[in-house]
Design a protein that fits this description.
Elements (H helix, E strand, L loop, with lengths): L6 H45 L7 H40 L4 E6 L7 E6 L3 E2 L5 E5 L6 H4 L4 E7 L2 E16 L2 E7 L7 H7 L16 H7 L6 E6 L5 H15 L9 E4 L3 H6 L3 H4 L6 E3 L1 H7 L13 H13 L10 E3 L2 E4 L1 H10 L7 H23 L2 H8 L3 H8 L8 H15 L1 H8 L6 H9 L6 H12 L8 E4 L7 H10 L4 E6 L12 H12 L3 E5 L1 E2 L4 H8 L4 H6 L1 E2 L8 E5 L2 H14 L4 E6 L2 H11 L4 E2 L10 E6 H4 L4 E6 L11 H11 L2 E10 L4 H4 L2
Parallel strand pairs: 2-4, 8-14, 8-15, 9-10, 9-13, 13-14, 16-17, 18-23, 19-21, 19-22, 20-21, 22-23
Antiparallel strand pairs: 1-2, 1-6, 3-4, 5-6, 6-7, 11-12
Helix pairs in contact: 1-2, 5-6, 10-18, 11-12, 12-15, 12-16, 12-18, 18-19, 19-20, 21-26
The structure holds adenosine-5'-triphosphate.
């Protein structure tokens, strides 16, 4: 039946057209509203600012001027609030105008009642009578779509379970007001929209998967808020995608209280960071604070040290124990300076520390010493304020500067008033000194740590951990911390993160088979670390590969234990058999490599080399045929790139060439196995594995 004769198609197209017209009207109403108000606002502001004269001539004029400025500011604020409300609605309409919705569920809310159609889209929108036109994919009722259960099903609202009857689950391929296709799901697992989404080729940037989130993925996206959620998922199972959908979900769920700046996302490298940076904005949400471990360490002020990737958890535990017995020595302390001027001498710091020597080193001790130092600093600032020269300097400040510092002009009537102003002046000048005390500049962590551990230097991890022993916590603001590729972190790194963000909830995602560095934490160790700091750890598994064709999935899962292989599946349609070849002669090898590169195929081809050294060698052989990517921010959309495994991780390509699959580079060791699994699993549609010399035993036994 062609779509012209299909009454369902026509009815759905008619519904879409009508809804689209409503969306357009909402858009036009808002923009007109904004324009009118904005223009009006502009006139108001012009009028107001003409009335306000900046007159600081005398005390009375100053008060008047300040009052007028305050009124002006509050009017601007009022407009801003109004503006924001509309801007948010406008943003949602704009999102929906690209695709008003992607699915509909028909639900019988109570037995015997007429069923209700619910259209689900990237954002929610209601009509002028507050009836829903489209519901947000994150709203409770939309869960019935993601559960993929026909008939009796349920969803959670405010912690309560609501049982409903799902009569129909319909998916749409829609662009703007045009319906291209619809699919009715009759059996639970079939997902036509997913299959059509997976046919696509590599895109420069990762895409949101809102319309096709699968059931096992939805369990992570909509998971109850728990202290720690640890997700173990095979290559291409959508961990990164799920992570970003989860952030969008949390930002929606907690939109009244959660700001994106309270969400941290740890990523493996800068290329990856740029690969994912449009996903949340495309869903109408802002990106969280995204950092790599390296960036985190350097923001903490530990950047110049060794990153600490070889620091063992025992070292940190030893530090914890030794700290209990620690008695600070005067050499462990440092003076407090500001802009080159010493404000508290080392001896004063030492006596503040001495005052609390009966306390063990730890958060309580640190808080008490800080308090003492702040009050000593205040006394010292009081002394400075009494200085005649300083008072003269203050009185000769020009009016603008006086206004900036005091919010008023200086007109002291007597010495006491002058002294009071001088104190405020000093507080203003030296405000940063209190921050220095808070930053614990008065503690020489390197010296203390070296003494505790009997070492001649501290790694970044040791330094950060020691500071946490003193402070107890690093960030009080962070509410959610997401760590992607968690299998690449060492126990010691995770101990730092768990403690630094001790108040935050964690989402940790990784694949134990993709641990490409020696000495990183196992999933059991990860769970232990977070159980110790956060009480409990919930775990989820993702067992289906969405990235790679079944042939490619079979090649990389073939590297795993037989029992594990049985549990894993791929949903991609059948594709091209992988090519695996080895060559004795260098020339024949290079000819095959050049041929594979030249063939390329549609989209982006990546030559994923095992190490940076191999990238250099291959780049010499291939010349301009492949663009080297080592840590730049962006990947091209097509062509051929040559990159080391450490940069390729987390990314995906249409065609992957593994150019160094010789036994010498990938011997039969657990680490090599995981590295090869990671390299091959970057491929979506094609894989070419080439070896110069005998093929790695990991693949030879296939
Ligand atoms: N539910 C889905 N619908 C459509 N596409 C999906 C879905 N889940 C995953 N994908 C696609 O599969 C690919 C792999 O997803 P993603 O990179 O999130 O997986 P990953 O588990 O983080 O992979 P890896 O661990 O191998 O780096 C992406 O192209 C993603 O868009």
């Amino acid at each position: 039946m062609s779509e012209h004769d299909d009454p369902i198609f026509q009815a759905e197209q008619a519904h879409l057209s009508e809804l689209y017209a409503q969306l357009l009207k909402i858009r036009d109403d808002i923009s007109q509203d904004l324009e009118t108000n904005h223009a009006g606002a502009k006139q108001d502001l012009i009028d107001m600012s003409e009335e306000v004269r900046l007159d600081f001539g005398g005390a009375d004029e100053t008060i008047e001027t300040l009052a007028a400025i305050e009124t002006l500011n509050s009017i601007i604020d009022a407009y801003n609030q109004y503006h924001d409300f509309n801007v948010d609605k406008l943003r949602r309409v704009m999102l929906l105008l690209m695709q008003p919705y992607f699915a509909k569920v028909t639900l019988e809310m109570r037995p015997g009642r007429p069923p209700r159609d619910v259209y689900i889209g990237a954002a929610g929108m209601t009509d002028e009578r507050s009836r829903p036109l489209v519901v947000d994919w994150r709203s409770p009722v939309a869960e019935t779509y993601y559960n993929q259960e026909m008939g009796p099903t349920s969803y959670q609202v405010d912690g309560k379970t609501r049982t409903v009857n799902l009569k129909l689950r319909r998916q749409f391929d829609i662009v703007r007001d045009q319906l291209n296709m619809y699919f009715d799901t009759t059996i639970a697992i079939q997902d036509s929209l997913l299959l059509s989404a997976l046919k696509k080729h590599h895109t420069e940037k990762l895409q949101a998967i809102t319309a096709t989130i699968q059931r096992e993925q939805n369990e992570v996206v909509r998971h109850a808020d728990v202290p720690v959620l640890l997700v173990n998922g095979i290559a291409g199972s959508g961990k990164t995608s799920v992570l970003l959908q989860r952030i969008a979900y949390l930002l929606y769920q907690e939109r009244k209280t959660l700001d994106p700046s309270q969400v941290w996302l740890f990523t493996p490298n800068d290329v990856f960071e740029s690969y994912i940076d449009t996903v949340l904005p495309s869903m109408g949400e802002s990106n969280p604070q995204t950092v790599t471990w390296r960036a985190f360490v350097s923001e903490q002020g530990a950047g110049e040290r060794d990153l600490g990737l070889s620091t063992s958890p025992e070292t940190l535990r030893r530090m914890d124990e030794a700290a209990r017995e620690l008695v600070l020595e005067s050499e462990d302390l440092r003076e407090v300076k500001f802009a080159g001027e010493t404000l508290l001498k080392a001896s004063q710091v030492a006596s503040a520390v001495e005052k609390f020597s009966e306390f063990d080193v730890g958060p309580r001790f640190t808080a008490l010493v800080k308090e003492e130092l702040h009050s000593r600093l205040n006394r010292r600032l009081g002394q400075i304020a009494r200085n005649d020269e300083l008072q003269e300097e203050m009185l000769s400040l020009d009016v603008e500067r006086q206004y900036e510092i005091f919010g008023e002009t200086l007109a002291p009537d007597n010495d006491d008033e002058t002294a009071a102003y001088a104190r405020r002046y000093v507080d203003y000048l030296y405000a940063g000194t209190h921050d220095e005390i808070e930053r614990l500049v008065w503690l020489r962590f390197d010296r203390i740590g070296m003494r505790l551990l009997g070492q001649s230097a501290l790694s970044a991890v040791e330094w950060l951990y020691l500071r946490l022993i003193f402070t107890g916590i690093g960030s009080r603001d962070a509410r959610f911390v997401m760590v992607d590729e968690v299998q690449d972190y060492t126990e010691a790194q995770l101990m730092v993160l768990a403690r630094y963000f001790s108040r935050a909830h964690f989402l940790l995602l990784g694949d134990e088979h993709q641990a490409i560095y020696e000495g990183t934490a196992t999933f059991a160790q990860i769970a232990d670390i977070f159980r110790a700091t956060h009480g409990s750890v919930d775990e989820c598994r993702l067992l289906t590969s969405y990235r790679s064709s079944p042939e490619i999935t079979a090649l990389f899962t073939g590297l795993l234990d037989k029992r594990e292989q049985l549990r894993l599946t791929s949903v991609q349609r059948a594709g091209v058999e992988p090519v695996v070849r080895s060559f004795d002669e260098k020339d024949a090898y290079l000819a095959a490599l050049r041929e594979a590169v030249a063939e390329g195929g549609e989209g982006l081809t990546a030559i994923v080399a095992e190490s940076d050294a191999r990238v250099s060698w291959l780049s010499k052989q291939l010349g301009d045929a492949a663009q080297v990517v080592r840590g730049d921010k962006n990947l091209p959309a097509e062509g051929v790139v040559l990159l080391p495994l450490r940069v390729a991780k987390g990314l995906e390509f249409d065609h992957v060439i593994v150019p160094d699959a010789q036994a010498e580079v990938y011997p039969d060791t657990p680490l090599s196995r995981r590295r090869l699994y990671t390299a091959i699993s970057r491929a979506m549609h094609r894989v070419t594995v080439l070896a110069q010399g005998p093929l790695t035993p990991l693949l030879a036994a296939r």
